[in-house]
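Changelog excerpt

This revision adds worked examples to the README so contributors can see how folded entries look when concatenated. The first example is reproduced verbatim below.
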Amino acid sequence: MNRYDYIVVGGGLAGLYTAFKASRLGRVALITKADIHESNSYFAQGGIAAVTAADDAPVDHYSDTVEAGRGLCEDEAVRVLTEEAPARISELIEWGMRFDTEADGHLALALEGGHHHKRILHAGGDSTGRMITSFMIDSVLATPEIEIFVNHQAVELLIDSNGCRGVRTWDWDQSQEVVFYGKHTVMATGGSAAIYRRSTNPQTTLGDGIALCYQAGCEVRDMEFVQFHPTALYNPGGEAFLISEAVRGEGAHLYNSKGERFMQGVHELAELAPRDTVARQIFMEMRRLGDEYVYLDLRHLDPDMIHKRFPTICARCAELGLDMTDRIPVAPAAHYTVGGVSTDLNGCTAVPHLYAVGEVASTGIMGANRLASNSLIECLVFGHRVVEDTVSRASSVHLDNLPKQVAGTEPKDVTIYHTIREQLSKLMTHHVGIIRNEDGLLSVRSRIEELRRSLCGVNDLYASFAEQLLIVAQLIVQGALDRHESRGGHYREDYPETRDAYRKHSSYSLG
């Protein structure tokens, strides 16, 4: 029987950091459904937000975060993030993480959309996520108290009267079920943006952790707030490739096909307005002119600076025959799940001994729209808090009277899963994207119900995974239907105004 002090599900920065921290207190099982290098954290380009400069302050970081959150941020959660972020950065540096520096040795700080101060740390130019995640992977691999189980997909959280006791998984390599029991289970499975056809996320980022927590009795909130990154490289027939917020932070401009710079006059920060504003304006320009993309123009910037600051993006553009120092075609793509599993300030969910951290969680920081580069630092601040909380509860948690292991169904017919995923991606993209309306949302809800009925009586693990997709889609759609206003990452063309009556969270649970 696999028994551990900690079970961490998810191999992004939140999972890696939490597992490493927890390893000092006991044995850890780190479970990932894909390769450990495949996560949103790994592909994050822009950077990590934290106050490190003398002319900046946590209260300013707080103000920018709350402004971007459009009235739905939880004040105390934002204070926790902004006040504790510097300590987590200092900790990483003490462990040996190297961030980019200026010639004088001070940390190199960048500006991104929604920030009024340069406070974005980066590493390897535009490879911050890869550098931090790789650093944590190396740290985890060197820690004998952590056992890593790759290609193990979570199937069910094991719940009894004592709370969460572990997780049932499917081992794709060995084609067998594996059950893990633990004193504390931490979900760090990321978001759900890959449920859309055009997304900056790895194709495995489908919200399965959110669905599992929902099925286990957790509250899920604010799923209607889906952040679309304004500038993903337009590549017909290919996957969307993120063009970092930092490119606009260095001064790049947005133009439509008529050569008009359209963000001026829309927001005081122009191209550096919060992401929801920029993405929506790009979408409207595309729709108005019948185009599939707009242009991100860098021709007025220093080419040497661009190559040095954005080596990864320059290389990707070159592979596609594009010159990043000129102008490149971009269009919005689903990027970040703003809502998620409700937690308190220590990552606790409604189910005892079950935690959520990172993009899968809804801590109250993001509100209705995430401020750029707050995601990576959230992983550190709340990963630390999760582990600290387990210390205070250690004496009351025991691995006895565990629920009996019940064998599940095997995956047999992948067709049913792929069929539902393909249909959902079309529906979500066409009707639950940047701009929504009631007719489109109702049509998607009706179709989800039809697809769910098609799974009735199907005894196949692939049907369970398809059901997870439907749960996530249903939560997004229902939140969008119930919110009769436009706010942050949720825009209803039939309710275009922000309304005080909806300055509240949307929340759903099975209880």
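The second example, added in the same revision:
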Amino acid sequence: MAKTSGGYTCAECGWQTSKWVGRCGECQQWGTVQEVGAAKATLARTTRAAAPTAGREARPITDLQVDAVRHQPTGIGELDRVLGGGVVPGAAILFSGEPGVGKSTLLLDAAARGAASGARVLYVSGEESTGQIRMRAERTGSLRDSLYLASETDLATVLGHIEAVDPALVIVDSVQTLASDQVDGGAGGPAQVREVAAALIRVAKERGTPVILVGHVTKDGSVAGPRLLEHLVDVVCHFEGDRQSALRFLRTLKNRYGPTDEIGCFEMTGAGISEVADPSGLFLSRTTAPVSGTCATVAMEGRRALPVEVQALVAKSATPNPRRVTSGVDPSRVAMILAVLERRVGARLHDQDVYVSTVGGVKLSEPAADLAIALAVLSAISDRPLPHDLAAFGEISLAGEIRPVVGGAQRSSEATRLGYTALIDARAETLHQARGAAGLARNE
């Protein structure tokens, strides 16, 4: 056995060096090189292992059965949608998100629903005491006899809890708070995170028990610690939301057992967090009388079609440089649409202040919202409202053409289901045709 010395490792790419530098020599990132420890003792050389034990020998792929690794529902429909149908036995799931977004609340609810079926669930927290977790469970109605709580920061003790409880699901909140006495350095360091994650993943694979790891995020929103952590796990989920809104979204960045383009919708309430199975009414205004400057579109969040209302306001500018204010849409894309409207349609906007926003705080980044933004601006200029049953989606080119977008059939189907009988899309080849179809053909 030989003792190894510590060094410095880049938290982004894993590049190693014997001395500290301000900039990583591999990925060229500044301030990511951190001092890490190494394992206290390692073997001097690797020897050939003994013969595989019974049940672990190599077998033909056609002889393997997949019934034991089917998805098992968690009881939360939106979470199951994102995971591809539920959790897979032996899967390692990394759950990340901003502080206070509701990660612990959602996972405690999932643990309670799993325990309600009679299965044992172990919830390990290195950030809260068991009393604090019970208080939150009482508030959210998550008290179950089969739900076991532990407040630990030592990896060996956590592994002992798993051995003693023999749970069907393990939740660790969070992986950055655990530490192993076999590795130098404090909890949360790259070496500690690698060791903790590797040990928990090994237990998950050996016992066939799914393990959910909560991960902290950095200022730029990425998972804290080495990027190796994201490669080790099977699923990477990101829980996001605006502090000014109760709406929360769950997305998958990596999924070995299902799609990565699904999205789950949740709403934060005083009694916890609840799933929103049909979010169609969250991003539409509730005005009964028609109002000018509004137009509905259908956005695609993963494979889910969501109706979103775009609002525009045009007012005479009191300054030489008119203002262009946006909320929820790409400002550069809005500027391009305004230029196309002025050049191709003849709309007078060079001396007007233009404000464009979405309802409900949703962010539209896809070009399919171009046509709805253009019609909303034209409606605001003419001060004539669009019909309530009109929805528009399509990409606008610099030539004033309307181009088709991805998922056009699904968008049309969702709009029709919600009562939008008048659809304007790429079938109106130019902005002039779309303008006439919307009833805005007269000059301002």
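Reviewer comment on example two: Residues 1-5, 38-44 have pLDDT under 50 and may be disordered. The two ends are 85 Å apart (CA to CA).
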